[in-house]
């Protein structure tokens, strides 16, 4: 098993470039199944999750070629409607192949998906939405069997603004007969990017980025080229890392509007940032004031940045309160941070962080993707050399993280 060996205490200087968004490209790859003509995706990050999704659609009949950060996908023929269990079990995002497969083939079989163990993420919202469009859902030996003799537009209210459910319904409705209205839809930037991609292929989607999305079904889609938006969570992680270590770094390929909640909280803590071209320049001395964080669905503070922000505040002046409202099991990084000396107490869905002067190196394990980012940040600020295991989680969402950080002065090495 690989691990990261990180020696802390180095100030960071230079430029770091953010890759395309993992959470945007995964549903877009799935949406490529709607089109029988070639599709080109630029700024597609080379990540473990992206590679798994490429394998999923390849198993369904599509061809996928990668050239650097460009993916070329051609789903001319879909000759299979069952996503392989061994792939689906690795990654929860594979559930979004349901919508496009149902629209294109009228039938899909898929097992319950896997992914990070950060809490219960039920798929009943996905299924209720597809049923409203005219699908019939059955359970068959651990598989979801979803079929339809013809999808029809419907008015769908989501009890919770689930990102995955919104994406699945959007893609299924994109080829349904008539107009679909999704109310209480997810509003994340990744939803907007998916809608943009669908429209570039000839779809008719309006309102993405708001709580109400209108989709007028079309009969077929055409070839297109699309550039994936920058990864706001990767960008936020790097902003927090640079602030915590101290230094002066330009984080390039950032859409600042996607990071408003993070930027507001970092500035409240005393971090200095300024927009510069297509990036954000950040400088600091690593000494900040504690703030309170409450995670919420977009446009609130993103749950994916809760763990890195907690690591950032372990050495802040004062006491910070973290309240997690999205996932009930997203404090698994706390025990690992405490191994490095952090003063953190958990009370239900809240964590109380008392700032200390320094963290100390220790052997730790990344329990999930964002916990891994938190441990990298902590290790870069700690005294001594930290070994981080479980870095396959980190590889799911951060492209070549050790190379990028090394180029701006971090002492981080991948060891087998």
UniProtKB/TrEMBL annotation:
<dbReference type="InterPro" id="IPR001986">
    <property type="entry name" value="Enolpyruvate_Tfrase_dom"/>
</dbReference>
<keyword id="KW-0132">Cell division</keyword>
<dbReference type="GO" id="GO:0071555">
    <property type="term" value="P:cell wall organization"/>
</dbReference>
<dbReference type="InterPro" id="IPR050068">
    <property type="entry name" value="MurA_subfamily"/>
</dbReference>
<dbReference type="Pfam" id="PF00275">
    <property type="entry name" value="EPSP_synthase"/>
</dbReference>
<feature type="modified residue" description="2-(S-cysteinyl)pyruvic acid O-phosphothioketal">
    <location>
        <position position="116"/>
    </location>
</feature>
<protein>
    <recommendedName>
        <fullName>UDP-N-acetylglucosamine 1-carboxyvinyltransferase</fullName>
        <ecNumber>2.5.1.7</ecNumber>
    </recommendedName>
</protein>
<dbReference type="GO" id="GO:0009252">
    <property type="term" value="P:peptidoglycan biosynthetic process"/>
</dbReference>
<comment type="similarity">
    <text>Belongs to the EPSP synthase family. MurA subfamily.</text>
</comment>
<feature type="active site" description="Proton donor">
    <location>
        <position position="116"/>
    </location>
</feature>
<dbReference type="GO" id="GO:0008760">
    <property type="term" value="F:UDP-N-acetylglucosamine 1-carboxyvinyltransferase activity"/>
</dbReference>
<keyword id="KW-0670">Pyruvate</keyword>
<feature type="binding site">
    <location>
        <position position="326"/>
    </location>
    <ligand>
        <name>UDP-N-acetyl-alpha-D-glucosamine</name>
    </ligand>
</feature>
<feature type="binding site">
    <location>
        <position position="92"/>
    </location>
    <ligand>
        <name>UDP-N-acetyl-alpha-D-glucosamine</name>
    </ligand>
</feature>
<dbReference type="GO" id="GO:0005737">
    <property type="term" value="C:cytoplasm"/>
</dbReference>
<dbReference type="GO" id="GO:0019277">
    <property type="term" value="P:UDP-N-acetylgalactosamine biosynthetic process"/>
</dbReference>
<dbReference type="InterPro" id="IPR036968">
    <property type="entry name" value="Enolpyruvate_Tfrase_sf"/>
</dbReference>
<keyword id="KW-0808">Transferase</keyword>
<feature type="domain" description="Enolpyruvate transferase">
    <location>
        <begin position="7"/>
        <end position="405"/>
    </location>
</feature>
<keyword id="KW-0131">Cell cycle</keyword>
<comment type="function">
    <text>Cell wall formation. Adds enolpyruvyl to UDP-N-acetylglucosamine.</text>
</comment>
<comment type="pathway">
    <text>Cell wall biogenesis; peptidoglycan biosynthesis.</text>
</comment>
<dbReference type="InterPro" id="IPR013792">
    <property type="entry name" value="RNA3'P_cycl/enolpyr_Trfase_a/b"/>
</dbReference>
<feature type="binding site">
    <location>
        <begin position="22"/>
        <end position="23"/>
    </location>
    <ligand>
        <name>phosphoenolpyruvate</name>
    </ligand>
</feature>
<keyword id="KW-0961">Cell wall biogenesis/degradation</keyword>
<dbReference type="GO" id="GO:0051301">
    <property type="term" value="P:cell division"/>
</dbReference>
<dbReference type="GO" id="GO:0008360">
    <property type="term" value="P:regulation of cell shape"/>
</dbReference>
<keyword id="KW-0963">Cytoplasm</keyword>
<keyword id="KW-0133">Cell shape</keyword>
<dbReference type="InterPro" id="IPR005750">
    <property type="entry name" value="UDP_GlcNAc_COvinyl_MurA"/>
</dbReference>
<keyword id="KW-0573">Peptidoglycan synthesis</keyword>
<feature type="binding site">
    <location>
        <position position="304"/>
    </location>
    <ligand>
        <name>UDP-N-acetyl-alpha-D-glucosamine</name>
    </ligand>
</feature>
């Amino acid at each position: 098993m690989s691990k990261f060996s990180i020696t802390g205490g180095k100030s960071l200087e230079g430029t770091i470039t953010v890759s395309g968004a993992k959470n945007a490209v995964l549903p877009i790859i799935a949406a490529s199944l709607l089109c029988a003509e070639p599709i080109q995706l630029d700024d597609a990050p080379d990540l473990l999750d992206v590679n798994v999704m490429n394998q999923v659609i390849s198993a369904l009949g599509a061809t996928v070629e990668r050239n650097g950060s460009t993916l070329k996908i051609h789903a001319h023929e879909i000759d299979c409607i069952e996503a392989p269990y061994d792939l689906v079990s690795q990654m929860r995002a594979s559930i979004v192949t349901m919508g496009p497969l149902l629209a294109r083939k009228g039938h899909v079989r898929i097992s319950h998906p896997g992914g990070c163990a950060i809490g219960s993420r039920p798929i009943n919202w996905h299924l209720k939405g597809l049923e409203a469009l005219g699908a019939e859902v059955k359970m068959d030996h651990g598989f979801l069997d979803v079929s339809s003799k013809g999808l029809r537009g419907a008015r769908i209210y989501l009890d919770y603004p689930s990102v995955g459910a919104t994406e699945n319904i959007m893609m299924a409705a994109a080829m349904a007969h008539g107009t679909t209205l999704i109310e209480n839809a997810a509003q994340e930037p990744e939803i907007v990017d998916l809608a943009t991609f669908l429209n570039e292929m000839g779809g008719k989607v309006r309102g993405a980025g708001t709580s109400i999305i209108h989709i007028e079904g079309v009969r077929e889609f055409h070839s297109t080229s699309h550039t994936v938006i920058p990864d706001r969570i990767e960008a936020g992680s790097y902003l927090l890392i640079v602030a915590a270590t101290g230094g002066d770094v330009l984080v390039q390929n950032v859409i600042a509007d996607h990071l408003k909640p993070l930027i507001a909280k970092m500035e409240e803590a005393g971090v200095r940032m300024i927009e510069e071209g297509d990036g954000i320049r950040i400088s600091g001395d690593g000494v900040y004031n504690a703030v309170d964080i409450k995670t919420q669905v977009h446009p609130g503070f993103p749950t994916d940045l809760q763990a890195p922000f907690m690591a950032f505040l372990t050495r802040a002046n004062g006491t910070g309160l973290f309240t997690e409202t999205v996932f009930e099991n997203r404090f698994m990084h706390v025990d690992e941070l405490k191994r490095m000396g952090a003063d953190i107490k958990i009370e239900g869905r809240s964590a109380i962080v008392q700032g200390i002067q320094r963290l100390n190196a220790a052997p730790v394990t990344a329990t999930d993707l964002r916990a891994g980012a938190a441990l990298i940040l902590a290790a870069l600020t700690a005294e001594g050399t930290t070994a981080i295991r479980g870095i396959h989680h980190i590889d799911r969402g951060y492209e070549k993280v050790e190379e990028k950080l090394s180029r701006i002065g971090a002492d981080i090495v991948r060891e087998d």
